[in-house]
């Protein structure tokens, strides 16, 4: 039987012991062996701290976000084999989807957050700058940098893929290398996904390592700066946390433990209401998804005492309809436990529950295409605790399988009290349409819960369910649940980052943070900042505008245009007792007038106003006052764009408006979208002619079989088609892919060198020479390119068919020609 290899110190290494046999949870056949015997864990940790940390921490947050996206896309293309392995763990297709594609989705989510909200630097400025001196020459702020160590991530058996990827999403994005230690059960699935992550070549050396089996003494070598993330039982977690290597050092420890989560049925949710039906469905799903092997599953079903019988009957019927058996069968809705050992452990807990509470439902015992002897199957089991304030077993013992307990309550006070008897839970849910009941219950139980999920008829269609942790929200909980926090959007990165206070002068803080600080030196030049592409803008680039004297007419006109007739702007007789001496200019007029002073009217790389932040007005501006504006590039934010958007970044500009006495009257931050340099040749006739001057009959292509003249005539044919001469009669791209292809015209990715033009196979005449020589072809090409420019000025709404991209308008044809010309000019070494 094949052993699973471990990936440490950059190599695939096989253990030299007997290892642990791993079995198919459905039929009992052996799948693999996990073995870590003989591995040098000390070397693995040191490798991560040195090679891994150096490579990851030197990347920017933005680039690490892009890395996550590339990995997720690579894995998504190979998902079928992961599903094939997942079925062997006892998971159904739905179970596997949550685990596999839910894991990929976490990578995608964090990639998106990084590209929208994180800087293109290896550090992250946290919070606002604090002015800590009277004159503003001494400032303070905070930066976050990757904690200098390695993260050991110990995962549970229930989610072999998601469990790994949800931890890696934050640690990799934070820039901290990781060692993944999955549970042996199902580790063959983790191993397959990990192999592809390595084979993709996307992750830098040392970023991730894999230990597939027993952890051995790996935690003995943990030291200051390292971190440990543990998912599993609270008992094991507490033991690990108390290890001398962890407790005695500055080791960050995060625990996400199983918990006795509850779901509360509202007093209003009687049979016949949508909420009652939603409650039954939600509880059934949480008992049967992953065969109840979820740390977020519902273990305690808290129901109004007068509805216990109704819920028991309805839930029993719903569970009866849940077919159990082989996950590969279409009928199956619930698979098996992960293995026989886990079955025995769940059965032991079931017997403990039986000692104090009544088993009121034991499920259907028929299996679909499977049997109890070979597989680790268990029917759903429902208990009833008729005295939940005195019988504590339901609040103390968790059977980690398809097992849950019904318990009654009288009012909202009792419901919240029962919820809290779990002594700390990952999630609690309330199913009710009574907002007062929900509000009273939720805030009372919140102190013992990491997440509260409210479900009713209003959100049911879009709800993600009680048991689904989301990347943008915290996953963790207090007390028994471990006191840890994972994910939670960008907050999930803080566990891996060192927060450092930075103090210094405005110039010093600007240099460190790459964000302009008020009072720092401004950089003035003759070129207007709005005429610079994103890559060319530098933090500190500034503009001092001319002055503008505000008049009474300005104030009156702005009142009429804006309909803002607030008395301070329009009624001089109402100013007694106010802060104003006379009618005052509108704050938004000052901001608008400032924009009028600092914008550049000439078309340039600035695409649009993107937003406004932190606008404050400090002194009134009256008629007769003269305002001047200082515009300064404050911060640059790289930005991923999709679809038909021009590749661009966001530039934040500090706007400082001063009056004739040099008093600051307004400060704001405006955001603009600024285009990035295009890598494609511009359709400037002089530039293209100059480029073609370097093409001769002896010029050889770097790829392909075209001659220089064939290439020019091929480009000319494309220009003629864009003029409708002739009108292309068809597009070779399938309709369902056309939008994607048209969107690609807008990005900055170059055309592939090996792209087979679909029309050439049918029309080889395109490569037959139509001009007597290369020079004649060049002249004709340039003449038609000039015609193209004139044609779309005279016919701006015209559209013509392209063989690959479909019907294109003026803008799209220009983008198409820029890419196409660049592709072939590079083919012949002209650019």
UniProtKB/TrEMBL annotation:
Pfam families: Aldedh, MaoC_dehydratas. Residues 460-484 are annotated as: Disordered. Residues 539-639 form the MaoC-like domain. The keyword Oxidoreductase applies. It comes from the Bacteria. InterPro entries: Ald_DH/histidinol_DH, Ald_DH_C, Ald_DH_N, Aldehyde_DH_dom, HotDog_dom_sf, MaoC-like_dom, PaaN-DH. Keywords: Oxidoreductase. Residues 12-498 form the Aldehyde dehydrogenase domain. The keyword Oxidoreductase applies. GO terms for molecular function: oxidoreductase activity, acting on the aldehyde or oxo group of donors, NAD or NADP as acceptor. CDD domains: ALDH_MaoC-N. This is Phenylacetic acid degradation protein PaaN.
């Amino acid at each position: 039987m094949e052993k699973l290899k471990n990936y440490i110190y950059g190599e695939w290494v096989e253990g030299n012991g007997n290892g642990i046999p791993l079995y198919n949870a459905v039929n009992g056949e052996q799948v693999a062996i996990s073995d870590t015997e003989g591995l040098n864990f000390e070397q693995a940790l040191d490798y991560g701290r040195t090679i891994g940390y150096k490579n990851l921490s030197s990347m920017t947050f933005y680039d690490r976000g892009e890395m996550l996206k590339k990995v997720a896309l690579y894995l998504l293309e190979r998902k079928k084999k992961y599903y094939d392995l997942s079925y062997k763990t006892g998971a159904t297709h739905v179970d596997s989807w949550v685990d596999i594609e839910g894991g990929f989705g976490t990578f995608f989510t964090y990639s998106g957050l990084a590209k929208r909200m994180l800087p293109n630097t290896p550090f992250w400025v946290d919070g606002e700058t604090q002015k800590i001196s009277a004159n503003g020459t001494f400032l303070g702020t905070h930066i976050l940098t990757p904690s200098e160590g390695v993260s050991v991530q110990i995962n549970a058996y229930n989610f072999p893929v998601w469990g790994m990827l949800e931890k890696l999403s934050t640690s990799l994005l934070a820039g901290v290398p990781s060692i993944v230690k999955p549970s042996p059960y199902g580790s063959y699935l983790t191993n397959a996904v990990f192999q592809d992550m390595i084979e993709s070549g996307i992750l830098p050396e040392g970023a991730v390592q894999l230990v597939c089996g027993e952890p051995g003494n790996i935690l003995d070598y943990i030291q200051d700066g390292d971190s440990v993330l543990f998912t599993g039982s609270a008992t094991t977690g507490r033991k690990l946390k108390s290890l001398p290597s962890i407790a005695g050092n500055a080791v960050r420890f995060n625990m996400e433990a199983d918990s006795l989560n509850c779901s509360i049925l509202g007093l209003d949710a009687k049979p016949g209401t949508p909420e009652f039906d939603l409650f039954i469905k939600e509880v059934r799903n949480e008992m049967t998804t992953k065969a109840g092997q979820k740390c977020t599953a519902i273990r305690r079903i808290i129901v109004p005492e007068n509805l216990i019988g109704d819920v028991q009957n309805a839930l029993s019927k719903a569970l009866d309809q849940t077919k159990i058996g082989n996950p590969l069968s279409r009928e199956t809705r619930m698979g098996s436990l992960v293995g026989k050992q886990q079955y025995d452990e769940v059965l032991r807990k079931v017997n403990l529950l039986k000692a104090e509470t009544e088993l009121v439902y034991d499920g259907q015992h028929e299996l679909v295409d499977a049997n109890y002897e070979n597989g680790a199957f268990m029917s759903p089991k429902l208990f009833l605790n008729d005295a939940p304030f005195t019988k504590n077993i339901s609040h103390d013992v968790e059977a980690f399988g398809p097992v849950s307990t019904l318990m009654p309550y009288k009012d909202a006070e009792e419901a919240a009290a029962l919820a809290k008897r779990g002594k700390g839970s990952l999630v609690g849910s309330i199913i009710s349409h009574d907002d007062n009941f929900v509000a009273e219950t939720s805030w009372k139980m919140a102190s013992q819960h990491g997440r509260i999920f409210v479900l009713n008829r209003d959100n049911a269609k879009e709800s993600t369910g009680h048991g689904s942790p989301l990347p943008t929200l915290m996953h963790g909980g207090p007390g028994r649940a471990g006191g840890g926090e994972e994910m939670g959007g960008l907050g999930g990165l803080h566990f891996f980052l060192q927060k450092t206070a930075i103090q210094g002068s405005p110039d010093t803080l600007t240099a460190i943070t790459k964000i302009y600080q008020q009072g720092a030196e401004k950089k003035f030049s003759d070129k207007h900042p709005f005429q610079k592409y994103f890559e060319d803008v530098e933090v500190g680039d500034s503009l001092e505008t001319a002055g503008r004297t505000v008049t009474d007419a300005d104030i009156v006109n702005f009142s009429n245009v804006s309909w803002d007739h607030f008395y301070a702007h329009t009624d001089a007789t109402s100013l007694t007792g106010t802060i104003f001496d006379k009618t005052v200019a509108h704050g938004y007029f000052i901001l608008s007038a400032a924009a009028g002073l600092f914008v550049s009217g000439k078309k340039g790389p600035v695409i649009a106003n993107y937003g406004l932040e932190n606008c404050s007005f400090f002194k009134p501006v009256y008629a007769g006052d003269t305002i001047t504006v200082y515009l300064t590039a404050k911060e640059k934010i790289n930005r991923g764009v999709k679809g038909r958007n021009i590749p661009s970044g966001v530039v934040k500009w500090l706007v400082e408006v001063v009056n004739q006495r040099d008093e600051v009257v307004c400060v704001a931050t405006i955001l603009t979208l600024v285009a990035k340099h295009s890598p494609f040749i511009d359709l400037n006739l002089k530039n293209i002619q100059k480029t073609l001057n370097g093409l001769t009959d002896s010029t050889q292509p770097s790829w392909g079989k075209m001659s220089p003249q064939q290439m020019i005539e091929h480009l000319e044919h494309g220009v003629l088609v864009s003029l409708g001469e002739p009108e292309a009669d068809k597009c070779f791209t399938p309709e369902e892919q056309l939008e994607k292809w048209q969107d690609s015209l807008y990005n900055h990715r170059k055309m592939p060198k090996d792209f087979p033009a679909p029309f050439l196979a049918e029309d080889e005449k395109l490569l037959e020479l139509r001009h007597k020589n290369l020079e004649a072809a060049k002249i004709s090409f340039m003449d038609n390119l000039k015609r193209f420019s004139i044609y779309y000025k005279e016919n701006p709404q015209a559209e013509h068919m392209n063989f690959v991209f479909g019907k294109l308008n003026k803008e799209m044809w220009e983008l198409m020609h820029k890419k196409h010309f660049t592709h072939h000019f590079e083919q012949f070494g002209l650019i």
